Amino acid sequence: MINSTKEECYIILGITNNAQACVQYEEIYGTTHEEYKNFFIFGVDEEVKRKFNNSTDEYEQKIISQIEKEPISDSLKINIKKGIVSFLYYKKTIYMFKVKRVSNNPEAYDEKFYIRSSSHNDEIKAASMMSFMQNFNSD
Question: Can you say whether residue 134 is alpha, beta or left, with left for phi > 0 and alpha for psi between -120 and 50 degrees?
Answer without folding.
Answer: alpha
